[in-house]
Amino acid sequence: MGKPSHKVLVVDDEEPILELLKYNLEKEGYEVRVAIDGSSAVESARKFHPDLVLLDIMMPKMDGVEACRQLRAMPEMQNAFIVFLTARSEEYSEVAAFDVGADDYITKPIKPRALISRISALFRRDSKKKSTQTQIKIGNLIIDRTSYTVKVDSREVSLPKKEFELLYFLAQHPNKVFSRDDLLQNIWGSDVYVLARTVDVHIRKVREKIGDDYISTVKGVGYKFNEV
Question: If you classify domain 7-129 with CATH, what class do you get?
Answer without folding.
Answer: alpha beta
